[in-house]
Specification:
313 residues, alpha/beta, Rossmann fold, Methionyl-tRNA Fmet Formyltransferase, Chain A, domain 2, 2 domains, 7-stranded mixed sheet, 4-stranded antiparallel sheet, 26% strand
C-alpha cells in the first residue's frame, strides 16, 4: 500500500517546489499540502513564475491545500489527524511544528534543510553559509522534533562552494543532488529501513531571518569580503550615496595603489569605478537605483559630481 504523505512547504521557494515535484514521482499518495502563511514566505531562492507550484498542482488533483496561521492550533491538528497520514515531509516550511502536530503521522516528520547540520540551523542557511565564506554547503534530511533543525539525521549531501557562487547557483547544485533523496526517503520508509543518527552539538550554529541591514555595505571591510557579499546576492547589497540608495550588481578585487581612505573613489573609467576598501579596492561596473533603474557606476559618479579623492562613505 502506498504511503500517505502530507507535504509542508513554501509556495514561493524553489527548494520547496522542486522537491514536491520529485515527491509526485514516487509511489506515494500526497493526501494534502500545507503552505507557509504569506507573511513568512520571503525566500532567498524564489520559485520561478512560469511553472505551477505545489499548491496549484495539488488543487488541480482535487486534494486539499491548507494555509494555517498556526500549524499547532488544535483545529489544524484535528484536520491532519482525519487524513491518517503515514509521513509528513517538510521542505522550506518556516513555522515550527510542536509535539502535538508531530505526533500525527504514523511514522515521522522528515525535514529537508539546506545546510550541513548541525551548522546553520534556522532560516536562509545557504545565504548565511555563503556570507560566511564556507567551503562546503549541502542539505540534511532529518527527523523533525519540536526545536529548530535539531532532530536525528537521516541523509546528508555535501556540495563544494565556488568563488563566484550566488545564492541561486549554489541552491541549484544542492537541489540537483538532494531531490534524489525524496525517492530514497519514501522507499526506505516503506521498507522500514530508515536509519536515524543523533545530531552532535559540535559545530552547531543558528541563524535567523535576513534583514535589510544585512545587505548594507561598509567600505572599511576588506575588498574580498565586499566582493563576496555583492556576488552572492547581485543587486541587493547597498550603500547610501549623496542621499540615494545604490545597489551593487557586481564587484572585482583590485589593488588600491597607495594610501587611500576606505570608501574613497580611486579611479573612474569609461565603464567602472574603483573604490578603496579596508584592504585593497573593489571595481564596480553596474549598479541599480531604486526602484529599478540600472546604470554604470561610472555614469552614476559623473551624475553625482563625484571624482577621484571623493568619499562614498
Amino acid at each position: 500500500m502506498a504511503l500517505r504523505v502530507v507535504f509542508f512547504g513554501n509556495s514561493e521557494s524553489a527548494l520547496s517546489n522542486r522537491h514536491f515535484h520529485a515527491l509526485m514521482e514516487t509511489p506515494c499518495e500526497v493526501v494534502a499540502v500545507v503552505d507557509t502563511p504569506p507573511s513568512g514566505r520571503r525566500s532567498t531562492n524564489p520559485a520561478p513564475l512560469d511553472s505551477p507550484g505545489f499548491v496549484e498542482v495539488t488543487r488541480r488533483r482535487g486534494a486539499p491545500a491548507f494555509e494555517p496561521a498556526g500549524p499547532n492550533r488544535p483545529e489544524f491538528v484535528r484536520a491532519m489527524r482525519k487524513l491518517t497520514p503515514d509521513l509528513f515531509l517538510a521542505v522550506g516550511y518556516t513555522n515550527l511544528l510542536k509535539k502535538q502536530i508531530l505526533s500525527v503521522p504514523r511514522m515521522l516528520t522528515a525535514n529537508f534543510h539546506a545546510s550541513l547540520l548541525p551548522a546553520y540551523r534556522g532560516r536562509h542557511p545557504v545565504f548565511w553559509a555563503l556570507r560566511n565564506g564556507e567551503r562546503r554547503a549541502g542539505l540534511t534530511v532529518h527527523v523533525m522534533d519540536s526545536d529548530f533543525d535539531t532532530g536525528d539525521v537521516l541523509y546528508q549531501v555535501k556540495v563544494r562552494t565556488r568563488r563566484d557562487d550566488t545564492v541561486s547557483t549554489l541552491y541549484e547544485r544542492i537541489m540537483a543532488r538532494s531531490v534524489l533523496l525524496v525517492g530514497r526517503l519514501i522507499e526506505d520508509a516503506r521498507a522500514g529501513r530508515l536509519r536515524r543518527m543523533p545530531q552532535s552539538e559540535d559545530g552547531a550554529s543558528y541563524y535567523s531571518s535576513v534583514s535589510v541591514e544585512d545587505f548594507r555595505l561598509d567600505w572599511s571591510w576588506e575588498a574580498e569580503e565586499l566582493r563576496r557579499l555583492i556576488t552572492i546576492t547581485p543587486g541587493q547589497c547597498f550603500c547610501d550615496i549623496a542621499g540615494r540608495r545604490v545597489f551593487f550588481m557586481d564587484a572585482a578585487v583590485v589593488g588600491a595603489g597607495g594610501a587611500v581612505r576606505p570608501g574613497e573613489v580611486i579611479l573612474i573609467s569609461r565603464g567602472a569605478c574603483t573604490i578603496a576598501a579596508g584592504r585593497d579596492a573593489v571595481r564596480v561596473r553596474r549598479v541599480r537605483l531604486e526602484p529599478a533603474e540600472e546604470m554604470s557606476m561610472a555614469a552614476l559618479c559623473r551624475e553625482l559630481g563625484l571624482g577621484p579623492g571623493d568619499s562614498l562613505a
